[in-house]
């Protein structure tokens, strides 16, 4: 337990010192959200209708941004060898690294999403819906990305391959996330139905990722 | 204090492959606690591969590695979890300080965070003591990006001290070290052996320890 807590603190400290992680993701998120109104025009009704989808796509792309460093830097500088000889199972190490990564990249996106939603003319219930679905959905995105990151860890240009691997896997999360966020703003579908499906997907990703990513790391790091 | 039974590293019929090609095959040797084994051989003879197999980082194609007697607290621990692996890479993050690294290493590599000495090897040092030992006490709070190659190597060496593990697997441990630091390394290895630990080191030069046995790997055609 002490070892996992130390690893969590180590990763958070690293993210803070490098300064990239969260801030870059949030700025990228902001860029994507501001660019869309310029592309589709200043039609407020249209923007508020597609707003949840814009926020979700922006969150997905921002999540992908830092993922190649999740295991990549540890592989390059030899830290991964240390983690593999640690007395802690690699599955738990992966889970803790994902948690630390989500805290520094996913959580900031959730926190700023209501503010950015205002820029897309979303009403109150929709803002809440987007924030709630992102809070539940971004851990799934981080987890799916971690599997991709583990698979591409030994590839020099893995950062380019990673989105190609991860985006198809993220489609179900996107579908239920956006439909729940949109349902929060009104419509015929109740909010709870797609939201529970999203929760289920996230739980599945949380349960499966440590094993899948650890197996991929063992395989590719040899 | 009674001395525990001496450690034995037993390797039988070990074979390894890299990229589908055999690196070494049918390798058998044994080493006992207090002994240092110098792995020598030309470039590409498989020294690093052997160390990575011993550390459990590479799966052997055949054979087995055992470290007896088993760990008192965790009898099922694989050899890799009872070994320090010091590879070519120092495993340091440029943005973090030596102290950050050693605190994390003490928690991750040490067993249960306890300060008690397991069989083989001296008791673990605190991160500050370890840094003083490698003469880096003054640089404890500097980011690793500002350290020289030799200083970075010394931080990696200090990691051997903060967690007590009976088997040291060292791959070219003296790379980038100046003469004074090489003497410190020799002192660390002597202390480890004197406390009943085991060292397997891949080197091109002499280890500088009395009673080092040599394990020669030949490059296979």
From TrEMBL, chain B:
<keyword id="KW-0201">Cytochrome c-type biogenesis</keyword>
<dbReference type="InterPro" id="IPR003439">
    <property type="entry name" value="ABC_transporter-like_ATP-bd"/>
</dbReference>
<keyword id="KW-0378">Hydrolase</keyword>
<dbReference type="InterPro" id="IPR017871">
    <property type="entry name" value="ABC_transporter-like_CS"/>
</dbReference>
<dbReference type="InterPro" id="IPR027417">
    <property type="entry name" value="P-loop_NTPase"/>
</dbReference>
<dbReference type="InterPro" id="IPR005895">
    <property type="entry name" value="ABC_transptr_haem_export_CcmA"/>
</dbReference>
<keyword id="KW-0067">ATP-binding</keyword>
<dbReference type="GO" id="GO:0022857">
    <property type="term" value="F:transmembrane transporter activity"/>
</dbReference>
<comment type="similarity">
    <text>Belongs to the ABC transporter superfamily.</text>
</comment>
<dbReference type="GO" id="GO:0017004">
    <property type="term" value="P:cytochrome complex assembly"/>
</dbReference>
<keyword id="KW-0813">Transport</keyword>
<dbReference type="Pfam" id="PF00005">
    <property type="entry name" value="ABC_tran"/>
</dbReference>
<protein>
    <submittedName>
        <fullName>Heme ABC exporter ATP-binding protein CcmA</fullName>
        <ecNumber>3.6.3.41</ecNumber>
    </submittedName>
</protein>
<feature type="domain" description="ABC transporter">
    <location>
        <begin position="9"/>
        <end position="221"/>
    </location>
</feature>
<keyword id="KW-0547">Nucleotide-binding</keyword>
<keyword id="KW-1278">Translocase</keyword>
<keyword id="KW-0472">Membrane</keyword>
<dbReference type="GO" id="GO:0005524">
    <property type="term" value="F:ATP binding"/>
</dbReference>
<dbReference type="GO" id="GO:0016887">
    <property type="term" value="F:ATP hydrolysis activity"/>
</dbReference>
<dbReference type="InterPro" id="IPR003593">
    <property type="entry name" value="AAA+_ATPase"/>
</dbReference>
């Amino acid at each position: 337990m002490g070892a996992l807590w130390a690893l969590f603190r180590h990763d958070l400290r690293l993210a803070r010192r490098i300064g990239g992680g969260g801030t870059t993701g949030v700025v990228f998120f902001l860029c994507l959200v501001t660019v869309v109104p310029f592309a589709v025009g200043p039609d407020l009704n249209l923007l508020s209708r597609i707003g949840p989808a814009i926020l979700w796509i922006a969150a997905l792309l921002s999540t992908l941004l830092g993922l190649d460093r999740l295991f990549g830097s540890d592989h390059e500088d030899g830290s991964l060898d240390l983690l593999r000889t640690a007395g802690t199972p690699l599955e738990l190490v992966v889970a803790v690294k994902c948690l630390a990564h989500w805290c520094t990249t996913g959580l900031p996106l959730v926190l700023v999403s209501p503010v950015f939603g205002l820029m897309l003319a979303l009403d109150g219930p929709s803002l809440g819906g987007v924030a709630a679905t992102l809070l539940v959905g971004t851990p799934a995105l981080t987890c799916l990305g971690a599997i991709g990151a583990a698979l591409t860890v030994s590839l020099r240009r893995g950062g380019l391959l990673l989105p190609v691997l991860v985006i198809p896997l993220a489609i179900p999360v996107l579908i239920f996330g956006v439909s729940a966020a949109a349902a929060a703003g009104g419509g015929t579908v109740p909010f709870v139905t797609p939201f529970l499906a999203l929760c289920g997907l996230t739980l599945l990703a949380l349960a499966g990722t440590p094993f899948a990513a650890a197996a991929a790391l063992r395989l590719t790091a040899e | 204090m009674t001395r525990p039974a001496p450690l034995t590293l037993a390797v039988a019929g070990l074979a390894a492959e890299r990229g589908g090609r055999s690196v070494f095959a049918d390798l058998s040797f044994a080493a006992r606690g207090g002994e240092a084994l110098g792995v020598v051989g030309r470039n590409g003879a498989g020294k690093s591969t052997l160390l990575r197999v011993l550390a459990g980082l590479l799966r052997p194609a055949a054979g087995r590695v055992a470290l007896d007697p088993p760990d008192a607290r965790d009898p099922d621990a694989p050899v890799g979890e009872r070994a320090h692996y010091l590879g070519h890479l120092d495993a340091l993050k440029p943005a973090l300080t030596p102290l950050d690294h050693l605190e994390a290493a003490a928690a991750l590599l040490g067993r249960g965070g306890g300060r008690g000495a397991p069989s083989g090897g001296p008791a673990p040092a605190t991160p500050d003591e370890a840094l003083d030992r490698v003469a880096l006490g003054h640089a404890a709070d500097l980011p690793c990006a500002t350290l020289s190659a030799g200083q970075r190597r010394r931080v990696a060496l200090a990691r051997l001290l903060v967690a007590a593990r009976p088997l040291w697997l060292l791959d070219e441990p003296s790379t980038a070290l100046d003469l004074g630091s090489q003497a410190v390394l020799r002192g660390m290895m002597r202390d480890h052996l004197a406390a009943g630990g085991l060292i397997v080191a891949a080197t091109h030069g002499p280890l500088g320890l009395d009673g080092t046995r040599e394990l020669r790997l030949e490059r296979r055609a």
